[in-house]
């Protein structure tokens, strides 16, 4: 029978092969046809049905696919091919719970199938059911007694502790239970793998049993720890540090440094333990046996200095014995450790003692530069110690470095290195001089000359790249970056945008020679965005090959600007690609966790959980989500038969429910990606980063409240959203009000109060107008948004909706009848007056002429884009009011017809006022559209000959190069104008149709 079953499997596999091939190649229609053809002959071939369902799913026919898989589940298949295909289907449907169902069912039919047990366990990992994981793992171990299965169960218990909301329960039940489970295996002498020992140590760490962990490492189980060099000693050193056994930790790290003298982490821990011993006046035990057991401990300053000096002597001896080749292979660690020791002593107020015992910091820095000045890492190594130079004149110190470097050739008045080593040594010297503030003392004109000299040196030094591929970093790239950084100083001092365009042109030329230099590309992106030119950004961003977590850490460099500069199509594309990463993160980390179980890498599982949580609560994720929804509201509402209310319904926005977990938000932006050689006082500080993070959260809250308020307004429209959405909203509000029903208008009132309160908090923020360096975090739109009174306009629009809704439910006899009309009238006046003022401000001339030179105002575009958004949101709110006013008018006319012979009762005054409001709003709307078109026409009328992007004093750029940049500027602005115009056209047509 077994042979016959195997024969059937082979035959079926041959029949199914065309389906698999077509699915793998993306030919889903052909796969569907092949499945239908096969099922005509073999109706009960369940695997073919599932593959048909998979083809339908990938064609976007989800409901049909789900119906087929449900039919197959009812049959309770047990063949591996069908179950595997179903698993793939359910993973792509994002229904992992159904994978658990099919393998649970299969196990009932084949309880001794080992593979089904393991597949069920992994399916439970997908849904995070740790309790059932434990049960399945122990049942699996009972049926098939293999160590990995047992430790799957142990790790499942640990996971229950890690995911438990009650930390006390984790420390008193889950972690002690997992410890006992492992101890049982130890007693039975069944612990035989390093992964199992690491899990044991991990559990003991959670319990704080560090003494016991050290005993294990010193015992026979420690011998299993052989995958990492000195792994046992490293773990013991870490445990001693946690236990604050400074003497033991010092001895451990001292021993590790003798074996690995270039490990900087070991040096840091060694110094930490040594200074703690110094502070505690620790002395070695008098008992010789204990002293011998403890080993050498550097508990005095003399011992610490002696140890570091010995490390350096050893390193110098190795270099001397190796000749010239040995110099290049010298380890930097011991030399940097000496500087670190001097710095630690200086911070402790023992600078003079450090000088006496170790020597002058200046001499050691010079010595380090003489050894490693030709390495790219020289500046980053020494930059943290430049403050040790004290009052010594920086220029004199820099000159001493110049004397140590390799000789330079004089070419065309420039100092050009004669070799790659000389070039790098020259660069490190200039970088250190900038760090020391030498260039800060120069005038703007002198800085400009230095920048141009650096740019010229870059061009001359490109000869060293001859025959080299366009690698990530060409040897001369830093000359150009230095030139741009110096120009940044000049630009920030003078405010002359011609320096901005010089930097852009320099970087454009730089990336033609170094196509993969990410520093140049990101800085060029930032400068283009500062110039309100987004057109070149998508290509630059794509060429950076941003992947996976970099979407979160670096994505802000594009996402923060794309919408505010009017490139709505690019914004939609960028937001979608970013959201795909975030939405797939849970699935991806689950696959990593499954792989960790399979290969016994249990210590990685908590890291994956932490990573998942960090990404889930990403500030960038929340921002992109809100901005994408606002963009859809702006572009899709009242477009292609989709009403404002339809869009809100499709988005499934529940205004009463704030989905953002504000307390857990994590700012994952990498704000220190940019290289900078500026003095310490001009570096981005931790305080700047914290202020930026808080402002980003304030901006997010403002945008989130705006989105929810707009959705709440849509819910008040007579053209109501679906019953399901209304019911969900009702349930949410009832839950938050102890089961009491809440009127929909109350939701909008609360949101309006929250919005007003939040804006008030923002206005009081002392850091509202905080400025950062260009390489720092992008500034939020908060100050510009408030300066343009967009918050005032939005709140007035929401008040108009609230008033209109209240008025539509009043009769003329109600006491608040006149008061409500007055409120609506005032809201309409506020909207019109503030929109008129904002429009007047944004219609200033795009072209600026100063000292006979023409350039353009880069601030107008973002102001206009924000105004377009606000106008469109006002159109949407006005449409809701229009439907309410229409309802009021029809009701009044109907009541008038019932009284025959009586003169018609006049309509409420607010109806005529609303008509006037709509007419005036339409005039302003046309004015905005004209302003957008005027910007486009200005570019069409301009001639490059009449425009000057740069001052022309330094002949660094050809006319063709300047023309190419201008062309990019022109195309970008025209694209922004086109997209704004397209967005307005549809809304104007819709607005005109609103006839009361």
TrEMBL record:
Similarity comment: Belongs to the MDM20/NAA25 family.
GO CC terms in record: cytoplasm; NatB complex
UniProt xrefs under InterPro entries: NAA25_NatB_aux_su, TPR-like_helical_dom_sf
Coiled-coil region(s): none
Gene Ontology MF annotations: acetyltransferase activator activity
Pfam families: NatB_MDM20
Domain of life of the organism encoding this protein: Eukaryota
Biased composition, class Polar residues, residue ranges: 718-740
Taxonomic lineage of the native organism: Eukaryota, Metazoa, Echinodermata, Eleutherozoa, Echinozoa
Gene3D superfamilies with a match to the protein in the record: 1.25.40.1040
Region spans: Disordered: 716-740
Protein name (record): N-terminal acetyltransferase B complex subunit NAA25 homolog
């Amino acid at each position: 029978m077994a042979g016959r079953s195997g024969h059937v499997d082979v035959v079926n596999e041959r029949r199914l092969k065309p389906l698999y091939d077509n699915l793998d190649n993306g030919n889903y229609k052909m796969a569907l046809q092949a499945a239908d053809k096969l099922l005509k002959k073999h109706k009960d071939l369940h695997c073919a049905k599932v593959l048909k369902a998979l083809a339908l799913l990938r064609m976007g026919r989800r409901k049909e696919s789900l119906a087929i898989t449900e039919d197959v589940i009812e049959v309770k298949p047990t063949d591996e091919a069908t179950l595997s295909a179903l698993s793939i289907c359910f993973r792509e449907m994002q229904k992992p719970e159904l994978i658990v169902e099919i393998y649970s069912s299969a196990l009932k039919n084949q309880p001794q199938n080992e593979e089904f047990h393991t597949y069920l366990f992994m399916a439970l990992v997908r849904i995070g059911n740790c309790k059932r994981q434990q049960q399945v793992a122990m049942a699996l171990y009972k049926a098939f007694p293999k160590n990995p299965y047992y430790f799957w169960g142990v790790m499942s218990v640990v996971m229950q502790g890690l995911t438990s909301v009650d930390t006390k329960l984790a420390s008193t039940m889950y972690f002690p239970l997992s410890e006992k489970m492992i101890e049982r295996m130890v007693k039975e002498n069944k612990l035989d793998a390093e992964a199992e020992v690491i899990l044991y140590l991990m559990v003991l760490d959670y319990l704080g049993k560090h003494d016991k962990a050290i005993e294990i490492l010193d015992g026979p189980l420690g011998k299993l720890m052989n995958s990492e060099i000195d792994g046992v000693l490293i773990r013991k050193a870490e445990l001693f540090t946690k236990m604050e056994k400074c003497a033991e930790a010092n001895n451990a790290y001292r021993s590790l440094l003798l074996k690995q003298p270039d490990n900087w982490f070991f040096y840091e821990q060694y110094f930490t333990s040594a200074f703690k011993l110094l502070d505690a006046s620790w002395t070695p035990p008098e008992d010789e046996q204990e002293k011998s057991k403890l080993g050498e401990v550097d508990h005095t300053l003399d011992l610490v200095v002696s140890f570091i000096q010995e490390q350096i002597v050893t390193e110098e001896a190795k270099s001397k014995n190796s000749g010239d080749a040995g110099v290049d292979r010298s380890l930097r660690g011991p030399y940097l450790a000496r500087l670190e020791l001097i710095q630690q002593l200086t911070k402790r107020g023992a600078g003079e003692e450090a000088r006496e015992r170790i020597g002058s910091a200046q001499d050691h820095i010079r010595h380090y530069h003489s050894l490693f000045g030709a390495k790219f890492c020289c500046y980053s190594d020494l930059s943290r110690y430049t403050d040790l130079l004290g009052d010594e004149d920086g220029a004199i110190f820099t000159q001493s470095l110049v004397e140590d470097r390799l000789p330079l050739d004089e070419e065309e008045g420039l100092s050009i290195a004669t070799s790659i080593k000389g070039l790098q040594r020259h660069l490190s010297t200039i970088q250190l001089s900038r760090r020391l503030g030498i260039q800060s003392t120069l005038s703007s004109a002198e800085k400009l000359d230095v920048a141009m000299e650096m740019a010229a040196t870059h061009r001359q030094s490109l000869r060293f790249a001859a025959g080299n591929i366009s690698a990530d970093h060409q040897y001369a790239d830093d000359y150009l970056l230095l030139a741009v950084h110096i120009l940044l100083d000049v630009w920030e001092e003078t405010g002359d945008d011609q320096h901005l365009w010089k930097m852009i042109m320099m970087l454009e030329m730089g990336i033609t020679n170094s196509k993969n230099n990410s520093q140049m590309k990101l800085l060029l992106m930032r400068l283009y965005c500062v110039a309100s030119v987004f057109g070149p950004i998508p290509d630059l961003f794509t060429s950076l090959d941003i992947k996976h977590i970099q979407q979160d850490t670096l994505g802000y460099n594009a996402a923060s600007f794309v919408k505010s500069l009017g490139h709505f199509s690019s914004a939609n594309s960028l937001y979608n690609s970013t959201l795909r990463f975030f939405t797939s993160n849970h699935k991806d980390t689950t696959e990593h966790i499954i792989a960790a179980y399979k290969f016994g890498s249990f210590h990685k599982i908590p890291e994956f959980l932490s990573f998942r949580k960090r990404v889930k609560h990403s500030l960038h994720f929340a921002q992109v989500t809100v901005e994408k929804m606002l963009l859809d509201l702006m572009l899709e509402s009242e477009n292609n038969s989709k009403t404002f209310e339809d869009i809100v319904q499709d988005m499934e926005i529940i205004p009463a429910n704030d989905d953002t977990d504000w307390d857990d938000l994590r700012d994952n932006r990498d704000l220190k990606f940019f290289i900078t050689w500026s003095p310490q006082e001009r570096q981005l500080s931790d305080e700047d980063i914290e202020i930026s993070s808080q402002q980003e959260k304030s901006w997010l809250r403002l945008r989130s409240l705006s989105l929810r308020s707009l959705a709440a307004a849509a819910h008040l429209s007579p053209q109501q959203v679906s019953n399901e959405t209304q019911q969900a909203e009702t349930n949410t509000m009832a839950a938050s009000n102890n089961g009491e029903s809440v009127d929909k208008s109350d939701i909008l009132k609360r949101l309006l109060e929250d919005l007003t309160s939040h804006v008030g908090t923002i206005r009081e923020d002392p850091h509202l107008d905080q400025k950062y360096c260009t390489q720092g975090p992008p500034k939020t739109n908060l100050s510009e948004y408030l300066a343009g009174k967009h918050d005032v306009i939005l709140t007035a629009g929401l008040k108009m909706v609230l008033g209109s809704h209240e008025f539509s439910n009043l009769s003329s006899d109600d006491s608040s009848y006149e008061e409500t009309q007055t409120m609506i009238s005032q809201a309409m006046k506020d909207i019109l007056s503030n929109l008129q003022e904002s429009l007047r401000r944004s219609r200033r001339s795009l072209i600026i002429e100063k000292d006979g030179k023409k350039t353009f105002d880069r601030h107008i575009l973002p102001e206009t884009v924000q105004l377009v958004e606000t106008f469109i949101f006002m159109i949407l709110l006005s449409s809701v009011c229009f439907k309410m006013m229409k309802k009021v008018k029809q009701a009044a006319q109907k009541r008038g017809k019932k009284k025959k012979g009586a003169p018609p009762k006049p309509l409420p005054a607010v109806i005529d006022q609303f008509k006037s409001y709509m007419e005036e709003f339409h005039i302003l709307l046309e004015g905005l559209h004209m302003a957008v078109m005027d910007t486009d026409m200005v570019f069409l009328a301009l001639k490059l000959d009449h425009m000057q992007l740069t001052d022309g004093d330094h002949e660094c750029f050809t006319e063709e190069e300047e023309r190419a940049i201008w062309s990019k500027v022109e195309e970008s602005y025209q694209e922004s104008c086109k997209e704004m115009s397209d967005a307005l056209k549809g809304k104007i047509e819709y607005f005109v149709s609103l006839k009361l």
